[in-house]
Amino acid sequence: METKIADFTHQSSACIHYTARQGSFQLEVSEWHYIANNKISKIIAHYHIGEIRADRKIDLP
For 1-61, where are the E strands, in sequence order? Predict the structure, then answer.
């Protein structure tokens, strides 16, 4: 897994970006950590998995 701190745009937030790999599967994640009162108040994660193979697609109603 590769990890890098991508951005410190504000003193109250930070972005951590990492890539996880297993075989030919790759998942890229960006996590935004928001700080309040010197504690993490929330984490918002954005996932990018690229193209979804036909055998992994989910049929939604």
Answer: 2-10, 13-22, 25-36, 39-48
Residues near 13 by beta carbon (within 8 Å), at least 6 away in sequence: 32, 33, 34, 35
What is the tally of structural domains in the chain?
Answer: 1
In angstroms, what is the C-alpha Rg of the chain?
15
Residue-number span of the structural domain to which 45 is assigned: 2-54
The residue that leads in pLDDT, 37 or 61, is 37
pLDDT of 54 = 80
The arithmetic mean of pLDDT across residues 31-50, rounded, is 88
- Global pTM reads 0.58
